[in-house]
Design a protein that fits this description.
single chain; about 750 residues; alpha+beta; six-stranded antiparallel β-sheet; two-stranded antiparallel sheet; 34 helices; 8 strands; about 5% strand; disordered N terminus
Length: about 750
């Protein structure tokens, strides 16, 4: 009997737990529709208002607005007029919901007048909560014309004894500066008075409004900052705001000016480091760290404070301190030597974000003798952190390897060990890029790096990384002391991998046969086996490589070896291939039919100005002349001389419509390692001359492949006169290593 009762009790408990789980997943807004909610809104017109039900309907309307649903003009008008009837209710909670829905619907100028009288009545209400909310709503929906009528009430509210009302008026003033700044500027005396308020929030908002009023007057801002730094401001929020204003004022100053005087306001920043509020201290630390050309002497007080916070019992303080020190370590690693002991203690911190920042900071500030100890500590917690933190550690390892080249063996072994562990694509990619950077900068690390990459592709699940590593092996493997040891790794990919990786492996094998004559018989045998592959791309590559490698002279293989000059024009070769396909000829394509020019300056497919018209077959004479002119113009500019010859110039693309005030076209010039965008600008506005014309460009894709290195402005653009402005990009080093065959 006891067992039966016990089982019943357990079943009841289990059912209750299941009900609780279902309740957690239930949303009161699930499945609501706009039409049904608008029907429910008719309850606003009832003679006997149900305050609770009206609050629920307004909540649903607010939910729909926040989810992106829009109301038509008719629907918004009906809801607005119905909501205005709710002002007759005395329920305070319903009144607060009414304020919210009016702000969200934002009635038109014709409808605002209907609710203005009710809001102005609430502004003078004895209930402070009504007054504050009415001010916010009225300032949000009013226009510049109505603002003059309520200015007197707003000025009174600014100096109101109630902090909630005063704060609401100050915040509304910040928003009204965009509507009618002249009226808000007349509040200067009242705002100045509220700065001395005992309420910290009022003091904070007053300071923000006063700065907004004077933000366009540099002299007034300097005077305001000087005044605020001398006042006894108690609010931590206001003090943090003062520190930010000080940072803006001294953003262009240096440690000592021409007369040898100290940096202005630095004494104030240093005094804030002794503040009781942790928020103010960190704001002052951030301001000192971000100073222009900050010196180690100026950093020392901030570093001392951060060192104390490293031992704090609060995780947020430890995190903020180590993050600030991590930023300092990028430019002044020697200044953090005194903090190394505390940072080493954070490596075992339970918060992995703190531990990761501590490790990366130590890697930047540590010396050569501490590398082995740090790597042992890193290994112990790498498995417990997420991939995004692991990428940060790998980037720090890359910087450390370039800083201490003699330690490359230890660092390469560490990278090899974490490369064999599980991880996502971005994490593995960062490790591979780190190894490639070390190989490129430290020649002694080439053999070890290529061996590690060869082992990695034996069990690599990412096609992109496998293809790129095979390309690197094909480029660098034949140049090592024992190139034959890489053949096994490469041919295994032909047997075990997908078609994309197999094609990359075939190309890599061909390069070994091309650059290592003693391996040529073995390479030919392996390539013959690839002729029976299931994928046509792999078969085509194998057939081409076999045919090329059988020739006696390497010069008969155009553009196969990196660095060799192409003896064919790319455009001519492309045209010949199209003609061959259109003719449906059963004979094999004869590449010898294309004219060779062994003494031509054309290298790597570059087009000389004389060949532009010939290669751009099918374009109109005007386009041909524009391409030729733009090429000659770019090549004659001193800023682009070091870029080398132009590989390709594209036809101009119009970026503006014909009826616009300015006409802008873009021509792209491609070099071997650079890309130059030429923007040709024409002014069509009468009696107006534009000066210092430039173009800002943002990369939508390929941010990691190209880096902007130059932007040349057009000095002036008179009426109906064309000129050019340029933006130049350079291919990154990693992108060059990863470039496909």
């Amino acid at each position: 009997m006891g067992d039966t009762n016990q089982s019943k009790i357990s079943d009841v408990g289990k059912k209750r737990d299941e009900d609780d789980e279902d309740a957690l997943d239930f949303s009161p807004f699930w499945g609501i529709e706009k039409g049904a909610v608008l029907q429910e809104a008719r309850c606003f017109n009832d003679s006997q208002l149900d305050a609770r039900r009206c609050q629920q309907v307004i909540t649903k309307l607010l939910y729909l607005c926040n989810q992106g649903d829009t109301f038509t003009k008719t629907e918004a008008t009906e809801v607005f007029f119905a909501v205005t009837k709710l002002f007759q209710s005395k329920d305070s909670n319903l009144r607060r919901m009414v304020y919210l829905i009016i702000k969200e619907i934002c009635p038109s100028a014709d409808e605002v007048i209907i609710v203005t009288s009710s809001l102005m009545k609430d502004m003078n209400s004895p209930i402070d909560l009504y007054r504050a909310n009415a001010i916010r709503v009225l300032c949000n929906i009013t226009d510049s014309g109505l603002l003059g009528q309520i200015e007197r009430y707003l000025k009174q509210a600014v100096v109101d004894k109630n902090a909630v009302v005063s704060s609401a008026a100050l915040v509304s003033g910040i928003h009204l500066l965009e509507v009618n700044s002249d009226i808000v500027r007349r509040w200067n005396n009242e705002v100045q008075e509220t700065i001395s308020s005992k309420n910290p929030v009022v003091q904070f908002h007053a300071m923000g409004l006063l700065h907004k009023i004077r933000q366009n007057d540099r002299l007034a801002i300097n005077k305001l900052v000087s005044q605020l730094t001398r006042n006894n401001v108690r609010s931590p929020l206001a003090q943090s705001l003062i520190i930010r204003y000080v940072s803006k004022v001294i953003s262009k100053s240096t440690a000592t000016d021409s007369e040898g005087a100290a940096r202005p306001f630095f004494d104030y920043l240093e005094s804030c480091l002794r503040n009781k509020s942790e928020m103010v201290i960190f704001e002052a630390v951030r301001a000192i760290i971000n100073l222009n050309q900050v010196t180690p002497r100026e950093l020392q007080p901030a570093i001392t404070v951060l060192q104390l916070f490293l031992s704090s019992s609060k995780p947020i303080l430890r995190f903020a301190a180590i993050r600030a020190l991590n930023k300092v370590a990028m430019l002044h690693p020697a200044a953090l030597t005194s903090c190394n002991l505390e940072m080493e203690g954070l490596i075992s911190d339970n918060n992995r974000s703190i531990a990761t920042l501590a490790i990366t900071t130590l890697l930047k500030t540590g010396n050569e003798s501490s590398i082995d100890r740090l790597l042992k500590q890193i290994t112990s917690f790498m498995a417990d952190i997420q991939d995004e933190f692991k990428v940060v550690v790998v980037e720090a390892i890359r910087s450390l390897s370039l800083k201490f080249p003699q330690k490359h063996r230890v660092l390469m072994n560490f990278l090899s060990s974490i490369l064999r562990e599980e991880g996502g694509f971005e994490y593995k990619k960062s490790i591979v890029e780190c190894i490639l950077s070390i190989i490129q900068e430290i020649p002694e690390a080439k053999d070890a790096g290529l061996a590690q990459l060869s082992e990695f592709i034996e069990d690599c699940e990412y096609t992109y990384l496998s293809s790129q590593i095979l390309h690197i092996l094909g480029e660098q493997g034949p140049l090592t002391s024992d190139p034959s040891k890489y053949i096994r790794y490469i041919y295994n990919r032909v047997i075990l991998e997908n078609a994309t990786v197999r094609a990359s492996a075939v190309s890599a094998l061909a390069k070994f046969g091309l650059l290592c004559p003693f391996l040529l018989p073995h390479i030919l045998q392996l390539l013959r086996r690839c002729l029976y592959d299931n994928d046509d791309e792999v078969r085509d590559r194998a057939a081409f490589c076999l045919s090329s490698l059988r020739k006696e002279s390497l010069g008969d293989i155009p553009n196969y070896e990196a660095g060799k000059s192409i003896t064919y024009s790319v455009a001519s070769l492309e045209k010949a291939l199209y003609n061959y396909l259109d003719a449906s000829n059963e004979l094999a394509f004869d590449v010898s039919a294309i004219e060779l020019n062994e003494h031509s300056p054309v290298a790597f497919g570059y087009e000389t100005p004389a060949q532009v018209i010939q290669n751009h077959i099918g374009t109109s004479p005007t386009v041909e002349e524009e391409i030729l002119d733009s090429q000659e113009f770019v090549m004659n500019m001193s800023e682009f001389v070091q870029f080398g010859p132009i590989f390709k110039s594209c036809s101009a693309i119009e970026l503006t419509e014909a009826e616009t005030e300015y006409k802008i076209t873009c021509t792209k010039h491609i070099f071997e390692k650079y890309m130059v965008f030429q923007f040709r600008c024409t002014n069509t506005i009468e009696e107006q001359i534009l000066e210092d014309v430039s173009v800002l460009m943002d990369a939508v894709e390929g941010e990691d492949s190209y880096t902007q290195i130059a932007s040349l402005k057009l000095k002036n653009m008179p009426l109906r006169t064309s000129g050019s402005t340029f933006v130049a990009f350079k291919r990154d080093a990693v992108c060059e290593l990863f470039s496909a065959l």
